[in-house]
Amino acid sequence: MRIMDGHCDALTKLYVNPKLEFGREEQELDVSYPRLKQAGVKVQCFAIYLSDSIQQPTFEHILQMVDLFYRQIGRHPGMHVIQTREDWHLVEAGERIGAILTLEGLDALAGNMMYVRILQQLGVRSMGLTWNYANWAADGVMEPRKGGFTRKGKQMLKELETMGIIVDVSHLSTTAFWELIELYNKPFIASHSNAQKICPHPRNLSDEQIKAIIQCKGTIGITFVPYFVDSANLTVPISALLKHIDHVCSLGGEGQLGFGSDFDGIEQWVKGLRHVGQYENIIEALCKNYRESQVEAFLYGNWRNFMLTSLPK
């Protein structure tokens, strides 16, 4: 079965440790070309995330990671960078794996709309508005004051809508989420978030948020972060992930559900999902609990439908 994964942080690991190579089966990389090939992943999103080790992130840091993406991933003979719908179709028609470049957190853009336009031209196709805390645009979900968008953040949101860059609300504060519903008129995604009803972590989505994403025909990427799956147990089995899938489906989200592993952004793993090459284990669990057509949609088809509507022609 084909797979699309909506979020990983392999770029950050490659940036922090220049000795790592995407094309080799690196033990430190959850997502590498050999492991993507092993799993049958057809499309992988790669996030630009500036870690806490960079105390004053700037646009130059983002450009360094864009350069790294094209040197390590874009130039790999087995990969093809997806920027348009035509690119997606080319990937589907061939043997190469598609790579979509995304941005996690607007912090280093410093409110400069020109930077957004430059990143669009460089191939960034989705932007997460915050990480866990506040930036110049909005509050993140862990910010104590629980605020929404700033004035400039609202301007940025309209700019993203006009430019057709996909908005990602994972990490966004609840207040900002509902402001976005009022301000933003296109489908959006939560690339790596689970159901709060099943696991009451602040990073997960409430039923009302899930319903809002379903209503706008967005996509929710079920994530493999263990403490977003089950915060009550140290060892989290794959079966616990299925509870989140069941719940989103019960709210009417069968057609809006995909996966966003967050591989390489985690230091704990769901049992049997230590790296992207082990997707076969979740496929096995899914096939025991859902129809084949449903499994294919969760793994690939729902993301495909969203992307072929949202990517530029």
Automatic annotation (TrEMBL):
Coiled coil: none annotated. Gene3D superfamilies: Metal-dependent hydrolases. InterPro entries: Metal_Hydrolase, Pept_M19. It holds the Pfam family Peptidase_M19. It comes from the Bacteria. PROSITE patterns: RENAL_DIPEPTIDASE_2 (PS51365). This is Dipeptidase. It comes from Paenibacillus alba.
